[in-house]
Amino acid sequence: MQAAVMYGPNDIRVEEREKPKCPPKGLILKVMAVGLCGSDIRNMTTDSLQGKYPHIFGHEIVGTVDETDAPDGAYQLGDRLYIYPEDHCLKCKACRSGHSENCMNSGNYINRQGGFADFVPVTNLQLQRDSVFKLPEGVSFEAASLSEPLSSVYACQENINITLGDTVVIIGAGPIGCFHAQLAKLRGANKVIVVEINDKRLELIKQFGADYTINSMSEDAVKKVRKLTNGCGADKVISANPAPSAQAQSIFMARKGGIIVLFGGVPKGSMVEIDTNYIHYNNLWIYGHFGANSIQVQKAFELAISPQFPANKFITHILPLKDINKGIELTRTGEAIKVVLLPNR
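Structure (tokenized):
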């Protein structure tokens, strides 16, 4: 099979590899579409596995069953499937309390072979748990590949209850920022303000419901947010980018009693100075967000493949797997919103 193999930071080679063997009571998925995620790019451009290479990444996976040893005929050859990368045990304390995103026994998808390849194995444990979803006929593989990145955005906005009439600030206009803008509008937000340093991205995000855009390199973002909210600040502020300075600044964009979400991870080891006195006297709530619980994963999948969600607007580039390095560059420069790679085609 063809696969995009990481040999080290920024060293991604598309080459022939042996097709994986079907896991006992599992299946082999023929990968028809796989999204290129920001975390994939971060992992493939840094020493993310600390020298444990070669490795195949890719976790936004959709395809068809090519081989199956699944019991009871649960999966047939040709079945169209979306594979959520983490499988939750649904038995530990975190899962049972409704927070399976914090599952203590979840499958470690980083250590598995990923989907930047023609074929990927799916284990029996994955099939037994909550990570495999069948695609209805008529739904494109490309649209379904957005289910995974949408899941965390969906969970975040549900958790903080973005709702009718809200003013929402999103810091970062990358692919995740675009998802946040669109979903906030679908949930009834009255005003969506996007802060970013890349003019190209600010222009692109307007099609996803951004009412106002601010380039924080050319104007004071906090002052502008205050001006756009009659001096009050936003109901909810989501920092969806990897900059520590953005997290520090985000608290000053929220109204008294408002909510701030630290959505985007910053470089490991980074420390952020936050004015805790300001948080204290303004009754601010600060949340960290990562992942999605089991039912939110399902709801996000159902939304991604529904007519309500304009999947095709997000997918700006569809490339063959051999052009993965081009896809990485398009995403890093901000020219692409979402790149979807097509193995086997």
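The chain has two domains: 2-146+309-342, 152-288. Residues 152-288 form a domain with the Rossmann fold fold (CATH 3.40.50.720).
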